Amino acid sequence: MKKIFNRLYRSVIQYSKIREYHFVEKVTDEAHLVRILSTESIPKLSFSLRALLGMWTDLRRVNLLRQLDELYYKKAYSEYLSLIQTHIHTIIYLKKTKYLSWAGLVTKGTELSKYYLGKAVSLHPIAINDITTSIIIEGYPDKTHINAYLRMMTLQSKKLTPLIFCYVILKDGEEAYLRTLLDKAYFVSKLDTKEHIELLSALNMPSALIQVHEKDKNYASYDIKTFERVYDAYTREGQLEHAKLLFDIADKTGLKNRKTLSNVINPHVINNKLERHYWFAKGDLVKAYGTYRRQNLAQVLSVVFPHQYTQSTVEVIKSRQPLIFASWGPGDEIRFSKVYTILVSKNPAITVTCEPRLHKILCELYPAVNFLPVNRTRRVNNESTFLYDALPHPKLHHLMDNALYQSIKRYDTISMLTDLLSEQINSFLTLKTTDNKSPMTIINDPMLKAEIEELKNTQRKLVGISWRSSIMTTSRNEHYFTIEQLLPLLKLEGVTFVNLQYGDCTIELDELKTKYNINVHNINIDHYNDFYSVINLMQELDVIVSAGTTVLELAGLSGTQTYALTNNHAMLYRVNEESRDLWFNNIHYVPLMTYLTKREVVTHISTELYRVLNEDKTKVINSK
Description:
This protein is of the alpha/beta class and 624 residues long. It starts with a helix and ends in an 11-residue tail after the last helix.
């Protein structure tokens, strides 16, 4: 009898039928909803035997969570938010935080979004480090308030653990403090092996991570993420035989826990990105780029378009009307566009989708290619839902919009550019030159032209600078730099630094001005949307220094001498023997960069800039 009652009780909690059971506290309006979301309280559940029996008979018909999934993936956001409000207590009771985060994404930039996200991190504190959280935060002009609120809700959470506390500290930039904690036995004793490995991975300490793993190789207890962290550590440390062995063990141990749409396309446990780093470390570019074929979007296309989708260049070449999807971010699209000429020379009928912001630039660079500007996005919100609400799969917004989907039948084959890269990379490398043809340098915008001329009239050297992405998480931050780390560079005299940073960086630049009396000049252009003007500006600069974001790829296209602001091992595959970029010959890397700290990388670039800029004897550059 007890088992039957427990089963019925779980059914009531998991399957919601409006008005058949209720929480004591009802949601009355948005202000009331905000009060619920901003507190830790979990409301009391009230139900009757009639409600239990009614719910049991109606179990198959009504499912709150399924309804929420369907509404969100259909982009029916008004209905989604209405259902969230009606059943907010149920969602909180079940601790289904992804629905709260999605609600925060839909309402991004509003006070209500902040409270949705606050409740999400309160119930599931690791969400403080989630990429969805970072995207939502980016929607606020003043991020100080929402960051402080989320930090408070996380630290007050009853679900806060020592590991999650570390993520909060990391988000605040206190990496050095965390490293000292790892020397304390009392702190380490609070972590199990998987948590210890996770923290060492977040702190980018692969050697120490390997030591922890080899001390206790309990593969049966490892989840897929733990396998991936150890595999990545072996790869970073150059222990490639150990990495390969672990890759195979993961396949034998973790396949039953793996989520995949296609076992044919994705037969392995460890994700394709980490396998790609392994093959880059082995120096095998063909196999490295071949790992893109395992990605989730490839699986989606194989399921949704089984008769059109191909990963074969031969089939694309034979096709009467082939369509190639550009995917990932605009930076990846810019870089991989270097193979368009090769593909179109084999089949002039190829159509290539492109990010609308890149359309004008790509048409000038590759006039023989038929480019189709298509809206795609990492996340869909309430303002953009009308562009994607007819797509047959919730992940397709990464590749296409409704307009393209409605005309997709006109193409007899479809493929992604990343599917074809492994079969084109050797052709690209054997080209006589990897120097890029830059877009036209004629500046049609009179205001932009006047601003640049005014800067040039100062007779100072113009150096463009970009140091991070607009989206910040612990894993992404290892690729980026802070203003404090840039100081050796920014203290060069005789230089006007020009801001190439997209996203809001007002607080950082104001602090730079206040604390160090260093001014970074802002040109009046939309860095996020107007890539053509950004290219025009870049071509007028003497030098560019950029972290590994879209700005670095645009700098590569511009032809202006560029220094990559990175010490990350993941960038090594792009570095040739002359410390130049595989894709763009004008991008330079710091030699042996992975052995240097970020500050040492900046100091090296500063020294190199001092030398390069002093080659012009008309203006001597001094360093403070």
